[in-house]
Write the structure tokens for this entry.
Amino acid sequence: MDDRQYYIDIVTNTRHTALYTGVTSDLKRRVWEHKGKFVDGFTKRYNICYLVYYEVAEDALSAIGREKQIKGGSRQDKIDLISCMNPQWRDLYEELWIAAACPVLDTGSRLPSGLLAKTKPSIGD
């Protein structure tokens, strides 16, 4: 059994002109790689290093499926998804470290209904 968590993330550049959607099992490491420009490719070429959105998936297959769903959406769908969770488009990288230190932290985000996000009901729903 795989006990790892998987993350679907969207990273952008300073002017938000490019968006990159990815999936990883180590979000902190992956964003660190983007910030340090350690991996050649799209994110390095377009200076994409700001984590503006992420979700947690239970397993690799559901993470990959959700990544494909997000990638298949329009740019506006991605903007709406980001703006719903992170209206100021802050870099969420530092918040990952805070969340790791305080695992009960809940952002309370609400996803746009048009994006068909998979969400679990809260206890008591």
In short: The domain at 6-115 is CATH 3.40.1440 (GIY-YIG endonuclease). The chain has one domain: 6-115. Residues 104-125 have pLDDT under 50 and may be disordered. Strands lie at 6-12, 19-24, 50-57.
